[in-house]
From TrEMBL:
<dbReference type="InterPro" id="IPR002740">
    <property type="entry name" value="EVE_domain"/>
</dbReference>
<keyword id="KW-0539">Nucleus</keyword>
<dbReference type="InterPro" id="IPR052181">
    <property type="entry name" value="5hmC_binding"/>
</dbReference>
<dbReference type="Pfam" id="PF01878">
    <property type="entry name" value="EVE"/>
</dbReference>
<keyword id="KW-0597">Phosphoprotein</keyword>
<dbReference type="InterPro" id="IPR047197">
    <property type="entry name" value="THYN1-like_EVE"/>
</dbReference>
<dbReference type="InterPro" id="IPR015947">
    <property type="entry name" value="PUA-like_sf"/>
</dbReference>
<comment type="function">
    <text>Specifically binds 5-hydroxymethylcytosine (5hmC), suggesting that it acts as a specific reader of 5hmC.</text>
</comment>
<feature type="compositionally biased region" description="Basic and acidic residues">
    <location>
        <begin position="56"/>
        <end position="65"/>
    </location>
</feature>
<feature type="compositionally biased region" description="Basic and acidic residues">
    <location>
        <begin position="10"/>
        <end position="28"/>
    </location>
</feature>
<feature type="region of interest" description="Disordered">
    <location>
        <begin position="1"/>
        <end position="65"/>
    </location>
</feature>
<dbReference type="GO" id="GO:0005634">
    <property type="term" value="C:nucleus"/>
</dbReference>
<feature type="domain" description="EVE">
    <location>
        <begin position="73"/>
        <end position="235"/>
    </location>
</feature>
<protein>
    <recommendedName>
        <fullName>Thymocyte nuclear protein 1</fullName>
    </recommendedName>
</protein>
<feature type="compositionally biased region" description="Low complexity">
    <location>
        <begin position="41"/>
        <end position="52"/>
    </location>
</feature>
Length: 242
């Protein structure tokens, strides 16, 4: 392939525009298991961020019972600016994806167990935000879709690749990847700072971004989104930035 491994979790850092981000453990220290899914509570109280005006209140058909979070969309982080890792440039922007044959490529180089498990949970046709990370102004630039479900990441066996893993065996590969295809650019760049402002407001009033993993697990380069989170963030492209 013309592009080296470029989408990775190992050694990921918090975005440069997030100096006040809570310092999380390095991804190498993440346990090899999924975190337990937390129940979501129905929105309560008044909304300062106005999200209830964006989405009609649903009638409860569960008798007040809480349901587990269901993830059906994703956020994929990749670095749009050059950075050498073991002598290899890991840069890969959305323009690089658009330049690939059929605007499709494999999403390789993930070396974090939780992120890998998220990759393995992806289903054909699901959509994801393409997020530019570790750059001057991080944020969402486009939408991609999953066109091939998880299969072994060949870079784990390539000794010349910066993400080579000598402990992985071909008969039982540790790491997986999926294929993604460009769908479209977002109508405007949606910066991290704008998403964070909504997240903080929703934490106070019970809005859809209150538990968004972009702020609770900043270092993960593969992050799940609920339908509610995806729809709200997508709605921001129709609004003028503040």
């Amino acid at each position: 392939m013309p592009w080296p491994s470029r989408k990775r979790d190992k050694g990921a850092v918090a975005d440069k525009k997030e100096p006040d981000a809570k310092i999380a453990k390095t991804e190498e220290e993440t346990p090899d298991k999924e975190e337990e899914e937390k129940s979501t509570k129905p929105p309560a109280g008044s909304s300062k961020s106005g999200w209830k005006n964006w989405k009609k209140t649903k009638e409860s058909d569960s008798g007040g019972e809480e349901s587990k979070i269901t993830y059906c969309h994703w956020l994929l982080k990749s670095e749009p600016e050059s950075r050498l890792e073991k002598g290899v440039d890991v840069k890969f922007s959305i323009d690089d994806l658009k330049a690939q044959p059929n605007q499709t490529t494999f999403w390789d180089g993930v070396r974090n167990y939780q992120a890998r498990n998220f990759l393995r949970a992806m289903k054909l046709g699901q959509q994801a935000f393409f997020y530019h990370s570790n750059c001057k102004e991080p944020g969402i630039v486009g939408i991609v879709k999953i066109v091939k479900e998880a299969y072994p990441d060949h870079t784990q066996f390539d000794q010349k690749d910066p993400h080579y893993d000598s402990s992985s065996r071909k008969e039982n590969p540790k790491w997986s990847m999926v294929d993604v295809q460009f769908v479209r650019m977002t109508k405007r760049f949606i910066p991290l700072s704008e998403i964070k402002a909504h997240h903080l407001a929703h934490k106070a009033d019970g809005g859809p971004l209150k538990n968004m993993m972009l702020f609770t697990r900043q270092r993960l380069s593969i992050q799940p989104l609920t339908q509610e989170e995806f729809d709200f963030v997508l709605s921001l492209e129709e609004k003028k930035p503040h």
